[in-house]
Design goal:
The structure holds three protein chains of three kinds.
Chain A (H helix, E strand, L loop, with lengths): L4 E9 L2 E5 L3 E6 L12 E5 L2 E6 L1 H34 L7
Antiparallel strand pairs in A: 1-2, 1-4, 2-3, 4-5
Chain B lengths: L3 H7 L3 H18 L4 E5 L2 H9 L10 E5 L4 H4 L2 H12 L3 E5 L12 H6 L4 E4 L2 H9 L5 E5 L3 H12 L6 E5 L5 H9 L5 E7 H7 L3 H9 L3 E4 L3 H16 L5 E3 L11 H10 E8 L3 E10 L8 H4 L21 H5 L23 H4 L4 H8 L9
Parallel strand pairs in B: 1-2, 1-7, 3-4, 3-5, 5-6, 7-8, 8-9
Antiparallel strand pairs in B: 10-11
Helix pairs in contact in B: 2-12, 8-13, 9-11
Chain C lengths: L20 H12 L19 E5 L2 E10 L5 E2 L2 E2 H15 L5 E11 L4 H18 L3 E9 L7 E11 L13 E4 L5 H10 L5 E2 L9 H11 L3 E5 L5 H13 L2 E5 L7 H10 L13 E4 L1 H12 L8 E7 L6 E4 L4 E3 L13
Parallel strand pairs in C: 5-6, 11-14
Antiparallel strand pairs in C: 1-2, 2-7, 3-4, 5-7, 8-12, 8-13, 10-12, 11-13, 14-15
The chains are: A alpha+beta, B alpha/beta, C alpha+beta.
């Protein structure tokens, strides 16, 4: 419902920020962001208004979150793999 | 200092995506049901899923249903009629591109434009206000979209628009419709993927009572491919473990309490009222209308909008035969609808599911069903 | 399969000019009807190709005509004059005719149109003709009352001779799909200007005459170049759909190989528009036999207008008439745009 595109603030003039969207730039209004925004900050833009500031650390943290999720499941997979190899060793049919 | 441009690509890393798809398969097997049905309520989620071809890597037993989350599609005919009536009466209308071709009872704004009405397509409500400032005539902004978009409209009003500017609000509020779907008797939905940008505004605390009441989990997800896959994975994990909880998988933008400033701005200008959504009947508190204090900018007060003239041309009431509500709730498929492919076609859509370019009925009609493009 | 209903009150809508399915249906139903193909295996109206081809002796006479109504008439990277020459030169080139014999140019001008603008347009026309190695040899001028036409409309027609005509329906299984450079440039640049989107950056139309580029490709590939089309209205998606439908093959594209400039990519993300739906006016799509693909690619890249040429896909037997995109995550159908491109918020 909400096409949001992240961009980097290049300069600010009052409530209006010039934002770089990695190939194109446009003005974005800062009326509804709930924290101070400075040049160099990233913001999420929706219909020409910034709806939040994206803390740069969050990006790394999110990637870490996804890695965690993946790691949790592959751990279970390793367990399953152990069980599978036991089954194979006892001559039963391999579980696919 | 990380470059967000490059980081976007991290969220589009095909290798991680493939690993997540495997994870989804694994989780679905553990859950053991066929299918496991989850619903998202965001047109942008469906656009992203379609754009990145994610349906081709979802497990066969996972059903990701597109719920009533496209504000364009659920904008009811009478609301479009109001805009069309104004346009045909000679009032200049500014609108987001999405709404231009959505049909009302008889016509769309595009039809009105073809007949000579003055319609401006804008990217932002701010652009519409700038346009009004340069004009001698009235300009009505046809305000569509969910709460994420409504905050922009509200902020614009608070910043003092020109006197010849007014708002025709068709804004919608999403949380109530999740209740309706969760309460539909035949629903198979076991969990919801919540819209990341709406949640940026509202926060995710609002879902905590929902999960308690309905006993199903809600996961807030972003819109990059990894965001969506990880969101689904978390949702399946919660379903597997029977944990009716809220999880936030979009911490870059979403906090528990949301954007307080945006919420203040929103509720200062708008109030939630019950209303009809196209295809899904009455949604309590589902529509956003301007508060009385803002009546001077309310197009419904400034203009006497006479929609009855449009109804001379209205086709027989097809809306009653439209089963979009059931299709959106995942209970029926397009082939079950008596209007599908006959009175209801992409060129002449009756219901929401045919309006949206990613709508279930639209895809079925254009491609003869949901093509199975899964690689395995 | 047609979904349009033709009643006595049916009206022509903007979508009928947008280059996609609706336009093809209108042309087929109203204009083509049961038109017969020309004698001697020529290409006529029924083929709905970029132009027509008529046998003259042991050569083909290739003809095409186009009208230009672009709004605004001046846009970043070009104007309606440059477009009028390039569009017609490119249609002839897409048929395999790269030595342009001559062009015509008719103008219809709205009363009140600034003389200075008209002269700017004429200068662009001359410059584009020089690039293409051709000239306007005859034309027509009309003026209509204020409000009876919007600004200016141009029509150009072109003629050329060629020994071999390349149709747009010649694809077979295994053929490679090559694009001559970045896509979506013209459509998004014009849209940004038209809707006053106030975007700053390197967003320019790519409008250019391609006959020199295509000549090089044909010299290198010869009979190995089996289909050509320029992705104008409706973008790469529409061009490929047409080629796939007419050739009765499926096309699979690899998203990661499709060249897109950063500013077009960013604009597409911002406005919710797929660059593959947006027009180009200085690019071509070629269908090439596998054994000719490498040399055609090298030939394209040796030319200034083809530096970013890429092999982007190939033809398959499955799902004839459909275009499938491999996104890098999974496969999806590449849809055609419905009507004019509009910025979206949802």
């Amino acid at each position: 419902m909400c096409l949001g595109v992240p961009g980097k603030v290049v300069s600010i003039d009052g409530m209006l920020a010039t934002v770089d969207f990695f190939g194109i730039r446009r003005n974005v209004r800062l009326d509804i962001v709930d924290e101070p925004v400075e040049p160099g900050d990233y913001v999420m833009n929706h219909v020409g208004f910034a709806i939040c500031r994206i803390p740069p650390a969050e990006v790394e943290e999110t990637i870490a979150l996804y890695e965690q999720l993946l790691a949790a499941v592959s751990k279970e997979d390793l367990l399953a793999a152990d069980i599978r190899s036991e089954i194979v060793a006892t001559g039963e049919k391999k579980n696919e | 200092m990380s470059d967000m441009g490059a980081n976007r690509l991290q969220f589009r890393d095909p290798a991680r995506a493939a690993a997540m798809a495997e994870m989804l398969e694994h989780l679905v097997q553990e859950i053991g049901r066929d299918p496991v049905s989850v619903m998202h309520v965001c047109g942008s989620h469906e656009q992203a899923i379609a754009r990145f071809g994610l349906r081709a890597i979802f497990p066969r037993k996972l059903e990701v249903i597109m719920g009533p989350g496209c504000p364009v599609c659920v904008t009811d005919m009478p609301e479009v009629d109001e805009a069309v009536a104004l346009a045909e009466a000679g009032v200049r209308i500014a609108t987001y591109g999405d709404m231009l071709r959505v049909p009302g009872t008889a016509r769309s704004l595009a039809d009105a434009q073809a007949a000579g009405a003055k319609i401006d397509v804008v990217y932002s409500v701010a652009q519409a206000a700038q346009l009004a400032a340069k004009l001698d005539e009235e300009l009505v902004f046809f305000a569509s979209g969910f709460e994420t978009t409504a905050v922009a409209t509200a902020a614009l009003l608070l910043s003092g628009p020109p006197a010849n500017f007014s708002i025709l609000s068709a804004h919608k509020y999403i949380p109530p419709v999740m209740e309706i779907v969760a309460e539909m008797p035949q629903t198979r939905v076991e969990g919801f993927l919540a819209a990341g940008h709406a949640a940026t505004i509202t926060g995710y605390a609002i879902f905590e009572r929902f999960v308690e009441r309905h006993g199903i989990p809600v996961v807030v997800a972003g819109f990059e491919p990894l965001d969506i896959l990880a969101g689904l994975a978390k949702l399946l994990e919660l379903i597997r473990d029977r944990r009716a909880e809220v999880a936030n998988m979009y911490p870059r933008c979403v906090r528990r309490e949301g954007n307080r400033r945006a919420q203040e701005v929103l509720w200062k200008v708008f109030r939630a009222v019950g209303g009809r959504w196209r295809g899904i009947a009455h949604v309590p508190n589902g529509n956003l209308r301007l508060r009385d204090e803002w009546s001077r900018f309310d197009a419904r007060r400034r203009f006497k909008i006479d929609v009855s003239r449009l109804w001379d041309y209205a086709p027989p009431s097809l809306a009653q035969s439209c089963i979009c509500g059931n299709i959106m709730a995942g209970i029926a498929s397009p082939s079950a609808c008596s209007l599908f492919g006959k009175e209801c076609v992409p060129d002449n859509p009756v219901g929401a599911c045919m309006v949206s370019s990613e709508g279930t009925c639209r895809i079925w009609h254009q491609y003869g069903g949901q093509l199975d493009l899964r690689q395995s | 399969m047609s979904s349009s209903r033709i009643g006595p009150d049916a009206k022509v809508m903007l979508k009928h000019g947008a280059g996609g399915r609706a336009m093809r249906e209108l042309i087929q139903q109203v204009f083509v009807g049961d038109a017969k193909a020309p004698a001697d295996g020529g290409i006529g109206l029924a083929a709905m190709d970029d132009g027509a081809a008529l046998r003259v002796g042991d050569e083909w006479l290739v003809m095409t005509t186009d009208s230009y109504v672009v709004k605004p008439p001046f846009f970043p990277g070009g104007d309606i004059g440059r477009l009028a020459v390039s569009g017609t030169v490119n249609d002839l080139s897409m048929m395999g005719a790269t030595e342009i014999a001559a062009l015509t140019c008719a103008v219809i001008i709205e009363e009140g149109f600034p003389r200075a603008d008209l002269e700017r347009i004429k200068a662009s026309i001359s410059a584009a003709c020089a690039e293409a190695g051709t000239a306007i040899v005859t034309g027509d001028t009309k003026v209509m009352g204020r409000g009876e036409i919007d600004g200016i409309v141009l029509n150009t027609a072109g003629v050329a001779f060629t020994r071999r005509v390349v149709p747009d329906c010649g694809l077979q299984l295994g053929d490679q799909i090559i694009v001559t450079g970045t896509i979506g440039d013209h459509g998004l640049a014009v849209m940004a200007r038209r809707y006053s989107l106030e975007l700053e950056g390197e967003l320019f139309s790519d409008v250019a005459p391609l006959n020199g580029l295509i000549r090089r490709a044909l010299e290198a590939g010869g009979d190995g170049v089996v289909a050509m089309k320029d992705p104008t209205r409706g973008g790469l998606a529409s061009a490929l759909h047409e080629m796939a439908e007419k050739s009765r093959v499926g096309i699979v594209l690899e998203a990661s190989r499709i060249p897109v400039s950063p500013s077009v990519q960013a604009t597409g993300e911002l406005l919710g528009i797929d660059p593959m739906h947006a027009a180009n006016e200085g690019k071509a799509v070629l269908g090439v036999r596998p054994d000719a693909a490498a040399s055609v690619l090298a030939a394209l890249r040796s030319h200034p207008l083809g530096r970013q040429a890429e092999i982007v896909g190939n033809c398959v037997a499955q799902r004839p008439g459909f275009v499938i995109l491999d996104t890098g995550f999974g496969l999806r159908l590449l849809t055609e745009p419905e009507g004019e491109l509009l910025p979206r918020i949802c």
